[in-house]
Each structure stands twice: as structure tokens, then as C-alpha cells.
Write a structure and sequence with these properties.
The complex is a heterotetramer. Chain A is of the alpha/beta class. Chain A has nine helices and ten strands. Chain A has a six-stranded mixed β-sheet, with helices on both faces. Chain B is mainly alpha-helical. Chain B contains 16 helices and four strands. A two-stranded antiparallel sheet of chain B has the order 1-4. A two-stranded antiparallel sheet of chain B has the order 2-3. Chain D is α/β, with parallel strands linked by helices. In chain D, 41% of the residues lie in helices and 23% in strands. In chain D, strands 7, 8, 9, 10, 11, 12, 13, 14 and 15 form a nine-stranded mixed β-sheet that branches. In chain D, strands 2-3-1-4-5-6 form a six-stranded mixed β-sheet, with helices on both faces. Chain D is globular, with a radius of gyration of 21 Å. In chain D, 66% of the residues are buried. The chains are: A alpha/beta, B mainly alpha, C mainly alpha, D alpha/beta. Chains in contact: A-B, B-C, B-D, C-D. At the B-D interface, α2, α5, α11, α12 and α13 of B face α1, β3, α3 and α4 of D.
């Protein structure tokens, strides 16, 4: 069985004035695999995610989602087509409950702005998706807790759950492990491993141990450009990576 | 809405319904005015408190509703059936146009663009013969519908109360609907909403238009109540005053707009009262200003945060913890 | 309009624009760096004008007088006022929403206006320009141009140059620029941001008060004078780009021109032109002509 | 913040209280005048004038004591109806006196017409108040904007000026004043070559002064008041136009503003229904009395307030204190000669003063009398159906 490519970036470039933040990066995300992007601070990883998700427009290059050219689609349209992302900093809605955070995300797929008399909190179709997403992220016990009161790790889980609630095909995860303790990291890795089935995942992460444990493919970026890409073993073996990145210490 | 909030709202409306039985004609007049301002404040609350769009030109929609009521009325008086919708529509259409353009900007720039459009409307009625100039124009005959003759103070009071209740219930339902939840999400984090798949612009535009239309309703009632309109109805002073009302009452709650409108009007009455301040009453702005400053310093969440604050004082940490999300939100 | 008239109108536009800049620059400073929407800015202008009127006899009695002595005393008082106000009314507001600051400054407007009424009364007053500057220059066949107006423009230019110097050439300016760009970073560098804010606020107030004092002989002194300049100052700041000094300068000159020529060429629409200009510029450049300094 | 509760309770009490009290023997006079904002000083002068006359009559008019109720109208027309209602419905006043701002006065006239409450306008010159809005129960003790303008039009035409430029704020009072001027001036053979205006309350005159210089008229007619009047006169002089193009204006340009205008106003000729040096026994007595009571020199606003009280006094005396007899009240006032410090005047059919309009010239910070510009000038009261 050949793997199905869900998201493809081709020769993506983004310049800020004279500075090239992302330099002709191409990559493919396949269903059922985790593709990690690593690199030093300022290597252009977050910009890459922003280009793929449509938050910023590329200076040149092309993005394909599920076979269609989405380069000129605005972000919300890409999201509705099955592209989910999480943020490096928590972007949950702190005053809402966990379930409402997820429900609102689920609502994005079933927007019915005209039914102004209907109570959103009793809207079963979105609630079911929300409960399901929360359950998969391991938050079932905390459904009614205001998101602002969650622990840091739980907030990161909620980020993922909100992402899942939109029923995406592709997940772009920006440092989901940032700031987590060992135990929380383990839980998150288990979650990612489970999510791999049926989704294509792009993982930007600093925790090298985690990346090498879970990633199927790794792309290494330095100064906006890709210097190596391949299986974890390939990357580990790559001389360039060693000198440019891993070998630093 | 939990039970205590519901009880509060029901009590307020019951009191308002009973008020004409107790009050004289001035009292009825005063509360009619305050209720009109409350509807106006609710319209802005939908933008500022719910959607996070700070509009500094809300008076334009209010004024357009009022001017439409006067300009569209034939000399022998109009029927409510078409005049009221026409006024609301006029304000809504202007809001749609203003919103479509101004929502391209953000933050302080949005505040200023809405102000600019309001000033434009102000100068159109102020400087052109169309608007009757500085001294304004009179509404010769008030609209009616069968027994619903708005020329009678009692009827107008009842009608305004019904409009206020209708607006409140409508917004209450709207805010818990999927549309309202999306607006709330946009206020907290618009970027996240876009990443989730919401095209936020149409949502904001819809909220802006709706808000303008409701302000137009308030303006219509104001014109009918006073029987005269003038450009000051569109001045930035009024836009500022209504903003003060909702902040004073407490942002993020429909009840806050209600409380704020009453508090602001009653504070003015209080400081202007010769009975209390004697000759110093002519300097009533001083008292009002100091009270507003005091409220900012001591009541960051507005008057609506008052009970929670008392509970914190009395109950200590347990309540403080429950109040955390609100605080966190306030700090955003 | 013949060429001579046109040139005189250009001079009028320039002079009005510079005056607007003088008033608005303090606002853009406070606005851009501290993020405070200061509705009371017009009140500070009003306070300045009344200082020029009310302080003059006091200063004359204590220091032997003179317009410039009054300016100096007024500016010192203004710095103190700004410093105290920041400490008393704003220092605890930075953590809160911007709208709270709006409410606070709205309250201050009411208070200042009533205090003015209580202390100085409600009458209109004129302020004489200093004898040194009270002459006029001939302009065309009929008109003359008051030297004092040139002086006002001179003050504006000097202030603009001074602000440019402070911003780009001094350590304080560097800290201020950094502070407006990134609050946390500045704090992590060990700069006392609270003190910085206090200084900026005091400077903003002092500039507004100075503008009021300098403008008083031209504008005369009357109740409600602060409110009438407030909105147009906001327009200047927003068109120019919040926090940008050179943006404010350009915007002020632009508004001076639109207002001056609007009154002459399109009197029916003179009131609305400035706002049309602002709306157009913001629709073209949604964050003003220049990003912050 | 118990203060709020307190405020709310107090406000409620304040609302409820008046309804309890029965009709007292005193005549309740509601003063709706500006206490704050640009016109605050004018409001004070009017109130002083009014109270002075009442005090001179021993606190009684028509045999009844006078009780005052006050509301600050803020010169804000959008609050006008509410403020009038405060006096009419809360304080149950018998008579309304107010105000300075024309737009506010229009709203007051509307309420007075609807409710039948007696209204005496002590300043606002809006033509409509004694035009389309005229009513048996509405009186004016001051002037209509048309009057000083018309009188000045005759004066300027007689002086032989042919080409005149007018300049004013783009608002009702300015438009009406200029219209009056133009009517008389063009009747007298002159021509208004340019009508300049700027948005109210903009005070940046320089561009328009340049326009005036460029069109080189024989004279300039202007209508400004308050801070704008001060600035306009100073700017006009500073621009050097004072020496080359004579400036004429409706009297408000130099009333209550001379102190601030200083020497720049010297020689300025204006028309108004009052002047500083009438030197009649009536005026001297009034000025002395006013100066003694308030330690201030009276101005035209004080006279208007004073005469408003006179009108009320005449009417009350005629109906023997019974204000229900509205027709008799009006009839008596219409017949009466009002012995005003400005000179005797009567009220015309539309209840606007038929009065001499004086030509005055500024000299030594006073509006010195030059002569009578228009004898017994009556407002045309266009649109009045009385």
C-alpha cells in the first residue's frame, strides 16, 4: 500500500524584507505518519507552519491539501477543508469550560449562524464531536472545568483536543511538548502515537528524544532552509546535521 | 444563565413594569429615557463586550434611527408597522456599510475609523439642509398603531419596556447560540478562531450590522419620546457616554449594560440635584467625574463585579479561586 | 485663487498644521509608548492655556514677569502635574484593559473642566503676546502676518527637532523606543519601566500644556477649548500611525492643508473633509502612514 | 461602593418627592440655563438679571412669591427635552425661563407648545421661536437673530458700502443673522459678494481671512459669539484687515468679550438692542442696582434676564397671580410697554420685542452708543400664525 500524501508544500519561500525566513522548503505529509521538523530557534519552523496553515502568504511556492492547490485559500477555508493546527503558546479560551472550548472548535465544521434562538450548549451534533475530541485527548474527567484553571499540561492537551474537534485530516502541531514535565510528556507522546492512525501530523518540537522516538520522518531546518530530510536514522547519520545542529554540543 | 442572574433580570423587569404605578409623570419620563439608553448600551455591549470590537461611533446609528423616524414620518403621523422597521433598517444599512469598511482595521485604528464615520454622519445632518441644520427638526406627529399611540407617555413607556425586554431576550438567546459563541470566541482569540475554520469577517460584520440596527431602534424610540432630533444625537460625546455606561456596568455581561445605563443616568440625576448639593449642584460634572474615577480605581469589573468583590472580602480564598477565570480574562 | 493668495493659504495651512502637531505630539507619545488612550489630553491643553492666563500675574509678582518666565514656570508645573497624575491615576491601570483607561481619562475631563470653572470662572479671556513678538510683517497688499504666529511655528519645529533628537540620539530615547516595542524585553534588561512610563507621561502632559500656553495668545482662552481640539488630535495621531512622531508631523500638516483649503474651496463640506481624509487613509493603510518611531 | 446605592436611593427620592407636595402659594419659576460649557457665563448673567428684578419687587411678582428651580441645560440640544421635563414634570414649575443655545430653546419651545407651559426666552435668537413655533404662551425678552442683522444691513448700506463679504459659523444663528443683514443691505442697494462660513465651533479663521483680503470688499459683516468672537476679532486685527476693511457685526461679537479682545476691538461698530452708555435714568438705575448686588457690570444678557422677569411680572399682575388664565396673561403682556433698561419696548404679535436696535462703537472696553440703527424694529415673524 502506498502512503497517501495529504499535505504537500512545494518550494515554499517567505521573505521579510531582505530576510529569508523560509527558503524553498518542500515537504510532504502522509496519512499515518509523523513528520517532525527540527531546527534551532529562528530556523523558520513556526513560519513554515504559518505558511502551510495559511496564516501568512508565501512569497513564492505552493501548498496542496488533499490534492487541491490551496495556496491562495484563506486560513479558515483551509481549516474547514481538514487542516488543523495548534499553537506554541496556549490559545485556549480561558473563561470557557473544557467542553465549550472543544465544542466551539467543532462548530467550525458545522457553522449555522442563522439559528439565533438555539442554545449552542445543547447542540448535540457539535457536543458529540467535542466530547469525542476531549476523550481522545484524555480530558473526559475535566469537561466542565474552566480552561483557565487547568494545569499547563492539561492546557496543552486541550490544544490538541480543540484541534481534533474540527475533525482534521492533517495536524500541524507547534511544540506540543513545550514546558511539560516527564509524565505529561509521556502521556502526550502516547496520544500522538495514537493520533498517527488516520492523520498526517507535522510536529515542530525541541525535545529531541521525543522527536526521535515518535517521528517517522524528520526534516532539519537551518536558517530557513532544509539541510536534511529522511528517517530518524538517516538524519542521525547525516554529517551536515551533526555539524550544523546536533554536533553543536 | 444561572438562577441568581435570572432572578436578578426578572426582578429588574418586574420593577420596571410596576414603576408607572408608583411614579409620577416625570419618573415615567426619566425611566423611559434610561430604558432607551439601556437599549442603546445593549447594542454597544454586543460589539464591545461580546465581540471585542470597540466602536467609538455608535451614536451615528442611534442618530440615524432618530433622524429616519422624523424624516420618514408623514405630517399626519406614520404607522408603527412600517416606520419602526424602516428606522431600524436605515441604521442597519449604514452600519453594514461602515462595518464593511472599518472592519478592515484593528484595535485603536478601528476605534478611530468608526469615530470618523460617525463624525461624517454628524456633519451631514449638521451642515446640509437635508438634516435641518444645527437646531434640528421636529417630529410633527408621533407614530401609532391602533391603541398603541406612542404620543401617550404611559403607552410609550410600555412600548419602550417591551423593546428593552425584547432586545435583552434576543441578545441573551443570541449570545448562547452558535453565532454568539463564535462572537465570544472572536473576542478572546480571533486568530485561533480563524485557525479553527471560522471566517471571522462575516461574523464581525453581522454583529456590527445587528448592533447598528439595535442602536437605530433606540434612536427611533428617542426621537418618538422627545419629538425633536438634532445633530448632537450623533456627536462623539454620546458615543463616549454610552461606552462609559457599559464599562461602568461591567463589560461582558448584558446585565452590565442595563446596570450601567441606570447607574450613569441616576448618578447624573443625583449630582445635579439641588436638594442634595444646593448651589454646588451647578458643578455636578465634578462629582460625576470623581465617581467615575473612583469606579475605575476600585471596581475594575464594573458595578456588576460588586457582589463578587463583597463575597471575596467575606469568603476569602474559596471565592477568589472561582473568580480566577474572570480575572484572567480581564488581564488578557 | 491667484498665486499670491494660494501661497498665503499654504502658509496658513502650514502654520495650522504645525500647531496641530504641537498639540498632538504629546498624545502620540503617551498613546504609542504606554498604550493609554488619553481622552484628557485636550484638558491638558486647556490647562496650559489657562496657565498662560492665570499664571502671568503671579509670575510677574514673584519673578518680575515676562511671557517666557511664565512658560518656564508653567512647563515645570506641567511636568509635576503629569508625574503626579501618572502615579495617582494610571500606574495601576497598565495591567487592565485599555477601556478602563478610557473611562479614567473621561472622568478626568469632567473633573478638570469643573475645576477650571471653580478656580478661574467661565469667562473668555485674551492673553497678550510678549511685546517682543507682538509685531507684524506685511503680506500682500492688505494683509499682515503676526510675528507671534511665526514664533508658534518656530516652537513647533523646535519641539519636533527636540523630540527627534531625544528619540534617536539619547539613551532615554532608546529605552523609550525599546519600551514601546517590547515591554517585557525592556524589563528584562533591568530598566525600570514604571519610571520610564512616568517620565513619558509627564513629558506628554508637559508638551500639551506647553502647547496650550504657546497657543493662548493666538487662540484666546475659553471654556470647553480642550474638547474642541481633542478629536482632531486623535485624527492626527491615527493618520500618522500611533506613536510615530514624524507620522504625526506629516498628518498634522496634511490636516492643516485639508482644513484650510476645504474651508475656502468646499465650505459646504469643510466639517467632514478631515474625517473623509482619515477614513480614506486608514482604508488604504490600516495602521496609519508610519509605523511607530 | 455604597455610594451608588445612596445615589440611587437619593435619586429615587428626588423623583418621587415633588409629586407629594401640593400646589404651593409660590409661583414656581424654572430656570433652564447653561451652568457648564461655553455659555456658562451667559447663563449666570441672565439668572442674575432675573433675580435682580424679582428682588427689587420684594421677592414677589403679581402678589405671589417666586420660587426658583434650576437645571443645567449644558447647551446640549440632545438633552434639552429631558431637561425641560425635569422642570415641568418633576418640579411642576409654572413658568419656564431659558435659554442661551438656540437648539435647546427650540426643544423647549416644542415642549412649551405641547404642554401649554409659559415660556420666556431670555436670549436664544432662533427666528423660529417667534416664527413657525410661535404660540400664545411663548414670549421672548431678547431679540431674533434677524433683528440686529437687518439693522446692520441698513447701516452698512447707508454708509455707502457696495460690496460686502459675510463670515460666520455654519449654524442656525449665524445663517439667520447673515440672512437678515443681506435682506436689508441688498434692499439698500449693496451686494453681498461672498458668504464665508466655517464649521461650528471651529476657530481657525486664517484661511477665510486670506479669502477676505483677496476679494477686497468694502466691508465685512460677521456673526460670532463667545470664544470664537474673541479670536475672530483678534485675528482680524492681527491680519491687518482692521485698518483696511471695516468690520461690522451683530452685537454679540463685542458683548462680554471686550476684556479679552482688548485694543483689537477698538472702533468696531455693531448693532444690538442694548449699549453700555445709554445714559437714560432707567438704565443708570438698573446698572447701579446690578453692580451693587453682584459686584459686576451688567451686560446685555443681564438685561434680557431682567426683562424676562418684567414680562412675567406684568402678566402675573394682570391675572392677579392666577397663571391658569393664560389668555389674559398673554393679552396683558401684548398690551404692555415694558420699561426695560434698553428703552421701552413692546412685544409684537409673535411675542418678539419690537425694539430700537442701537448702533454702537467699541471704545475703551465699552460698547458706546452711536445712535439708533433701526427704530422700533419688528421681526417679520415669518411662519407665525398667531
Amino acid at each position: 500500500m502506498t502512503a497517501q500524501v495529504l499535505l504537500r508544500g512545494r518550494e515554499l519561500t517567505r521573505r521579510w524584507g531582505g530576510l529569508v525566513a523560509v527558503d524553498r522548503v518542500s515537504l510532504e505529509l502522509e496519512r499515518g505518519s509523523v513528520h517532525a521538523v527540527i531546527g534551532t530557534n529562528g530556523a523558520g519552523k513556526s513560519t513554515l507552519i504559518n505558511l502551510l496553515s495559511g496564516e501568512i502568504a508565501p512569497s513564492s511556492g505552493e501548498v496542496q491539501l488533499l490534492g487541491s492547490d490551496v495556496t491562495h485559500w484563506p486560513q479558515p477555508k483551509r481549516a474547514r477543508a481538514g487542516l488543523g493546527r495548534s499553537y506554541q503558546r496556549n490559545t485556549i479560551y480561558p473563561s470557557f469550560g473544557v467542553i465549550e472550548n472543544c465544542r466551539l472548535a467543532a462548530q467550525a465544521r458545522r457553522q449555522q449562524p442563522w439559528g439565533w434562538w438555539r442554545d449552542a450548549a445543547r447542540d448535540e451534533s457539535t457536543l458529540a464531536a467535542a466530547r469525542d475530541a476531549a476523550a481522545r485527548a484524555g480530558l473526559t474527567a475535566l469537561l466542565d472545568r474552566p480552561a483557565g484553571l487547568l494545569s499547563h499540561g492539561q492546557k496543552r492537551q486541550l490544544e490538541i483536543a480543540m484541534c481534533l474537534a474540527t475533525a482534521p485530516e492533517v495536524l500541524l502541531l507547534d511544540e506540543p511538548l513545550a514546558g511539560m514535565g516527564a509524565e505529561e510528556t509521556e502521556r502526550m507522546l502516547a496520544l500522538l502515537a495514537e493520533l498517527k492512525h488516520g492523520h498526517a501530523i507535522l510536529l515542530v518540537e525541541h525535545d529531541m528524544d521525543a522527536v526521535f522516538r515518535i517521528a517517522d520522518r524528520i526534516t532539519v531546518m537551518v536558517n530557513g532552509a532544509v539541510i536534511a530530510s529522511g528517517t530518524p536514522d538517516d538524519v542521525r547519520a547525516s554529517a551536515e546535521v551533526r555539524t550544523a545542529y546536533l554536533g553543536d554540543h | 444563565m444561572d438562577r441568581s442572574k435570572l432572578a436578578f433580570v426578572v426582578a429588574v423587569f418586574a420593577l420596571l413594569a410596576a414603576w408607572p404605578l408608583a411614579a409620577g409623570s416625570y419618573g415615567v419620563d426619566l425611566v423611559t429615557k434610561i430604558m432607551v439608553y439601556a437599549i442603546f448600551a445593549l447594542s454597544l455591549e454586543l460589539l464591545v463586550g461580546t465581540t471585542g470590537l470597540v466602536c467609538f461611533g455608535q451614536a451615528a446609528f442611534f442618530g440615524i434611527g432618530a433622524y429616519a423616524a422624523v424624516l420618514l414620518s408623514p405630517a399626519e403621523g406614520a404607522s408603527l408597522v412600517w416606520l419602526l422597521p424602516a428606522c431600524v433598517l436605515a441604521a442597519g444599512v449604514y452600519a453594514l456599510a461602515v462595518g464593511a469598511l472599518s472592519l478592515r482595521t484593528k484595535g485603536v485604528y478601528f476605534i478611530m475609523v468608526t469615530l470618523a464615520f460617525a463624525q461624517m454622519a454628524y456633519y451631514v445632518v449638521h451642515d446640509t439642509p437635508f438634516g435641518g441644520g444645527t437646531d434640528g427638526i421636529y417630529l410633527t406627529a408621533k407614530p401609532s398603531l391602533g391603541v398603541l399611540d406612542l404620543d401617550r407617555a404611559g403607552v410609550l413607556y410600555g412600548f419602550t419596556l417591551a423593546c428593552l425586554a425584547g432586545t435583552f431576550v434576543f441578545l441573551g438567546l443570541l449570545l448562547r447560540s452558535p453565532f454568539g459563541r463564535a462572537l465570544a470566541g472572536i473576542r478572546v482569540n480571533e486568530q485561533r478562531m480563524r485557525a479553527t475554520g471560522f471566517s471571522t469577517y462575516p461574523y464581525k460584520l453581522a454583529a456590527f450590522t445587528l448592533s447598528g440596527a439595535i442602536a437605530g431602534l433606540a434612536g427611533f424610540l428617542f426621537a418618538v419620546k422627545d419629538g425633536v432630533v438634532n445633530p448632537e444625537l450623533m456627536s462623539w460625546h454620546l458615543s463616549g457616554a454610552v461606552l462609559v455606561m457599559i464599562i461602568l456596568g461591567g463589560l461582558g455581561h448584558l446585565r452590565g449594560a442595563l446596570i450601567g445605563a441606570f447607574a450613569f443616568a441616576l448618578l447624573q440625576e443625583f449630582f445635579q440635584s439641588v436638594a442634595v448639593f444646593g448651589a454646588f449642584a451647578k458643578h455636578w460634572h465634578l462629582g460625576l467625574g470623581l465617581t467615575i474615577i473612583g469606579c475605575v480605581a476600585l471596581l475594575p469589573r464594573g458595578l456588576i463585579g460588586l457582589p463578587a468583590r463583597w463575597r471575596e472580602r467575606l469568603g476569602g480564598r474559596a471565592f477568589a479561586r472561582a473568580a480566577l477565570p474572570a480575572a484572567e480574562e480581564a488581564a488578557r | 485663487m491667484d498665486v499670491a493668495t494660494f501661497l498665503v493659504q499654504c502658509l496658513n495651512a502650514l502654520q495650522y498644521g504645525l500647531l496641530l502637531f504641537l498639540i498632538a505630539s504629546g498624545l502620540t507619545l503617551i498613546f504609542g509608548i504606554m498604550g493609554v488612550i488619553n481622552l484628557a489630553h485636550g484638558s491638558f491643553y486647556m490647562i496650559g492655556a489657562y496657565m498662560a492666563f492665570a499664571l502671568a500675574p503671579l509670575v510677574a509678582a514673584t519673578f518680575g514677569g515676562g511671557f517666557f518666565a511664565t512658560l518656564a514656570v508653567g512647563t515645570v508645573l506641567a511636568v509635576l502635574l503629569g508625574y503626579v497624575l501618572e502615579w495617582a491615576f494610571f500606574s495601576f491601570l497598565y495591567e487592565r484593559e485599555h477601556l478602563q483607561q478610557v473611562l479614567m481619562t473621561y472622568g478626568l475631563i469632567l473633573v478638570f473642566e469643573e475645576l477650571r470653572s471653580l478656580v478661574v470662572g467661565d469667562d473668555v479671556h485674551g492673553v497678550e503676546p510678549p511685546p517682543l513678538l507682538s509685531g507684524t510683517l506685511p503680506l500682500g497688499e492688505l494683509m499682515t502676518y503676526p510675528v507671534y504666529r511665526l514664533f508658534v511655528s518656530g516652537v513647533c519645529v523646535a519641539l519636533a527637532a527636540g523630540m527627534w533628537f531625544v528619540f534617536t540620539r539619547t539613551r532615554l530615547g532608546m529605552m523609550i523606543r525599546a519600551g514601546s516595542a517590547n515591554r517585557e524585553m525592556v524589563q528584562s534588561l533591568g530598566i525600570d519601566i514604571k519610571f520610564l512610563y512616568r517620565v513619558v507621561f509627564a513629558a506628554g502632559v508637559a508638551i500639551a500644556v506647553l502647547a496650550g500656553m504657546v497657543a493662548a495668545p493666538v487662540s484666546s482662552v475659553y471654556p470647553g477649548m480642550g474638547n474642541s481640539v481633542l478629536i482632531v488630535c486623535f485624527v492626527v495621531v491615527v493618520i500618522g500611525g500611533i506613536g510615530s512622531i514624524r507620522g504625526a508631523l506629516l498628518a498634522a500638516l496634511l490636516i492643516g492643508a485639508v482644513d484650510t483649503f476645504g474651508k475656502v474651496l468646499l465650505p459646504q463640506a469643510a466639517g467632514v473633509l478631515v474625517y473623509v481624509l482619515m477614513a480614506l487613509i486608514l482604508l488604504w493603510k490600516p495602521s496609519g502612514l508610519f509605523k511607530a518611531a | 461602593m455604597t455610594l451608588h446605592r445612596l445615589a440611587a436611593v437619593a435619586a429615587c427620592l428626588a423623583l418621587a418627592a415633588p409629586f407629594a407636595s401640593a400646589q404651593s402659594a409660590k409661583v414656581k419659576v424654572g430656570l433652564m440655563l447653561p451652568n457648564s460649557g461655553t455659555f456658562a457665563a451667559l447663563g449666570t448673567a441672565i439668572e442674575n438679571g432675573f433675580r435682580l428684578y424679582v428682588a427689587e419687587q420684594g421677592g414677589k411678582l403679581g402678589g405671589r412669591e417666586i420660587e426658583f428651580f434650576k437645571v443645567d441645560d449644558e447647551s446640549d440640544p440632545s438633552k434639552a427635552t429631558d431637561n425641560v421635563n425635569k422642570l415641568i414634570k418633576r418640579d411642576n414649575v409654572d413658568v419656564l425661563v431659558g435659554t442661551v443655545h438656540s437648539g435647546v430653546a427650540m426643544a423647549m419651545a416644542k415642549v412649551a407648545k405641547d404642554t401649554g407651559t409659559l415660556l420666556i426666552v431670555p436670549n436664544a435668537g432662533a427666528d423660529a421661536v417667534t416664527g413657525p413655533m410661535c404660540a400664545p404662551n411663548i414670549f421672548r425678552s431678547s431679540f431674533s437673530n434677524w433683528q440686529p442683522g437687518y439693522a446692520m444691513g441698513e447701516v452698512v448700506a447707508k454708509k455707502g458700502h457696495k460690496k460686502v463679504v459675510t463670515i460666520t459659523w455654519k449654524y442656525a444663528a449665524g445663517d439667520e443673522s447673515v440672512r437678515g443683514f443681506k435682506e436689508a443691505f441688498e434692499k439698500g442697494g449693496g451686494q453681498v459678494v461672498k458668504e464665508l462660513s466655517l464649521p461650528f465651533p471651529n476657530v481657525e479663521f486664517q484661511a477665510l481671512l486670506t479669502e477676505i483680503a483677496a476679494s477686497k470688499p468694502d466691508a465685512v459683516y460677521t456673526f460670532f459669539a463667545g470664544g470664537g468672537a474673541v479670536k475672530f476679532v483678534k485675528d482680524y486685527a492681527a491680519a491687518g484687515l482692521k485698518n483696511s476693511i471695516p468690520l461690522y457685526g451683530a452685537g454679540f461679537i463685542t458683548d462680554g468679550t471686550l476684556e479679552a479682545q482688548g485694543a483689537d476691538a477698538d472702533g468696531l461698530q455693531t448693532t444690538l438692542h442694548y449699549a453700555d452708555s445709554l445714559n437714560t435714568p432707567r438704565d443708570d438705575a438698573f446698572r447701579l442696582s446690578y453692580a451693587k448686588t453682584y459686584k459686576l457690570q451688567p451686560d446685555v444678557y443681564a438685561v434680557q434676564g431682567y426683562d424676562a422677569a418684567q414680562i412675567l411680572g406684568i402678566g402675573l399682575a394682570a391675572v392677579k397671580g392666577d397663571l391658569a388664565k393664560k389668555a389674559e396673561f398673554a393679552a396683558a403682556v401684548e398690551k404692555a410697554k415694558i420699561d426695560s433698561p434698553r428703552g421701552t419696548f413692546v412685544l409684537g404679535k409673535s411675542h418678539n420685542p419690537v425694539q430700537d436696535i442701537y448702533l454702537r462703537q467699541v471704545s475703551g472696553k465699552e460698547n458706546k452708543l452711536v445712535g439708533v440703527a433701526a427704530k422700533s424694529l419688528a421681526d417679520p415673524a415669518r411662519g407665525c400664525k398667531l
